[in-house]
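Supplementary Note 3. Input sequence used for the single-chain structure prediction.
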Amino acid sequence: MQHARVRISIRAINATDVRWAPPASRDAFMRAYCNAPLELVTIDPRRRGIGAIGHVGYFRPQAVDLWRETLAWFFDPQPAR
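The predicted structure, written as discrete structure tokens, is reproduced below.
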């Protein structure tokens, strides 16, 4: 596998209400990126007041703040500590 060759910062985001690919699935997958600075972000849509996210809710208008946060990260990614 080539995952260990990746050395750039990765921000992996999941919502708590995703049944198809829950945060535990993300975490298991991301372990392969053992040499990359990694930030795991778990979003609880109820706490954020944005309604259900599910698998495709990131693309709904109520999730626009999530996109703003993600785009901001692309311009200033902070390595995981």
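The longest strand covers residues 10-15. Residues 28 and 71 are 25 Å apart (CA to CA).
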